[in-house]
Amino acid sequence: MEFFSTPKDIVITSHQNPDGDAYGSSFGLQSVLTNLGHNAVVISPTDHAAYIGWLPGVEGVINFEGKDQPKAIKLIQKADAIFCLDFSALNRIKEMEVHIRVSRAVKVLVDHHQEPEDFADYVFWNEKAAATCELLYLMCEELGWEDKIDKDAAICLYTGILTDTGSFKFDATTADIHRIAGKLIEKGIRPSKIHRTLFDNQSVDRLKFLGFALNERLHYLPEYRLAYFKFSQADLKQFNSQKGDTEGIVNYGLGIEGVIFSAIFVEMEDMVKMSFRSVDDFSVSEFARENFNGGGHKNAAGGRSFETLDAVEKKFLNLLPIYKEQLLAQPA
Prior knowledge:
Elements: E1 9-14, H1 20-35, E2 39-44, E3 62-63, H2 69-78, E4 81-85, H3 96-102, E5 106-111, E6 122-125, H4 132-143, H5 151-164, H6 175-185, H7 191-199, H8 204-216, E7 218-221, E8 226-231, H9 233-238, H10 250-253, E9 261-267, E10 272-278, H11 284-291, E11 295-296, E12 300-305, H12 309-328
Parallel strand pairs: 1-2, 1-4, 2-3, 4-5, 5-6, 8-9
Antiparallel strand pairs: 7-8, 9-10, 10-12, 11-12
Helix pairs in contact: 1-5, 4-5, 5-6, 5-7
């Protein structure tokens, strides 16, 4: 892109409640753009969970919901370019949506979710990609920016790939993902350290919460080849649950022999947040989009509802007979 051949003021943002791929891509790109001579800042729609708070660059992030919102709005207004990472629709950035939508900055979308909204000037999108961090690395290759990926950027990009591939076990894990991971390792990163920091660094409260989830809140419905978890605000408060503590729990449902669909329902202050996971050809993205105001990927999606937790659970259970034939038809 000729546009980026001279220094620019650039805003980088990702979806609300950022995960490893959202922050990995954000701070990885910030490092690359800084090394290219640009003034790049990361603005997050919401605060982040502790498990990704160690990433290089996080200390400089601006939380749009925090005290620096006026500063964030000014940065958006003066930006020459805005990179939108790891989300396909502007409603995924909460209150930032209106400011990004009316901005006259050049907008660049880099994402791998289904059905991207048509708002960006440049789009680097592939729903078959395992992670936005994968796409960012490929974009850097195409633009000749690969040499600007330093060790900090490599740590961030590897983190996004590691988390969104489920430690290289999901179906989207390809030979090219391993090639990219190898290139990032050559930048001097330590994969074992990144893995330990992400997954072996939990609080005692979180481990007790996980035990509670598996013992008390796991529902197994073999007649649908399904498992699901349901957490009230009281459950979260009981274990001093922090942002991100429910992350990954939904995957435990798929660990049950024969289960091909797993769900989690979490009662928040203003809504019920849900995540869906599947294997093989059952599309949880379609399920979420058709029933719970959500979407995502074929085998990993999210949704939300403003009904009560019990009402959401009842709706979910009432939907299952409609999908039973499709669920039972999946390979064993």
